[in-house]
Amino acid sequence: MGAGKIPTEEDVQRQKMAVVREDQQRLVRYTPPRQKDMLNAQKVKDLANANGLWIYHKEANQWFTPEEFEKAYANYYRGHPLFNSVQLKNPLEGIEAGYKQLYKLQEKLREFSLKVVKYYTTP
Predict the structure, then answer these.
(1) What is the pLDDT of residue 29?
(2) Are 85 and 59 in contact (CB under 8 A)?
(3) Tens of pLDDT along 21-40?
(4) Residue 106, CA distances (Å) to 62, 96, 102, 109 in order
(5) DSSP line for the chain
(6) What backbone torsions phi and psi does residue 31 show, to the nearest 5 degrees?
(7) Residue 60 and residue 42 in contact, taking contact as beta carbons nearer than 8 Å
(8) CB-side exposure of 44: number of CA atoms within 13 Å?
(9) Model pTM greater than 0.85?
């Protein structure tokens, strides 16, 4: 079809069909995961152990050894959303984060202490 030419009904239909075919090719059919592929406490524990990592539960801000995690969540059903929301991390990251928080808190306390001393010592 050239510039300035009015599209025919056939051209419009051809374009519509091309769009439909593209959309069909882009669609990904949802297939639920198979029961055996879903995570459970033991699988999370095994993954952590295999990689030398611990389990971090961000919402609870809590660290677990692989064994503690399995014991705490063994009764949760396979595929529970918790198993996809926890993170496998090096526990040294937790220690480093803790020291950073401690440093920030220490700085706030120092600033507050200076403010109190200044308030009561300045005429």
Answers:
(1) 52
(2) yes
(3) 776 665 555 455 566 667 88
(4) 22, 15, 6, 5
(5) --TTPPPPHHHHHHHHHHHHHHHHHH-----PPPGGGS--HHHHHHHHHHHT-EEEETTTTEEE-HHHHHHHHTTSPTT-HHHHH-EEE-HHHHHHHHHHHHHHHHHHHHHHHHHHHHHHH--
(6) -120, 120
(7) no
(8) 33
(9) no
Distance CA 35, CA 77 (A): 11
Contact 76, 41 (CB under 8 A): yes
Beta bridge partners of 64: 55
Q: What is the mean pLDDT of residues 59-79?
A: 91
Distances, alpha carbon 88 to alpha carbons 3, 54, 63, 106, in Å: 58, 6, 10, 29
- For 54, list phi and psi in degrees, rounded to 5: -110, 175
- 40 touches 83 (CB < 8 A): yes
pLDDT score of 52: 95
Of 29 and 62, the structure prediction assigns the larger pLDDT to: 62
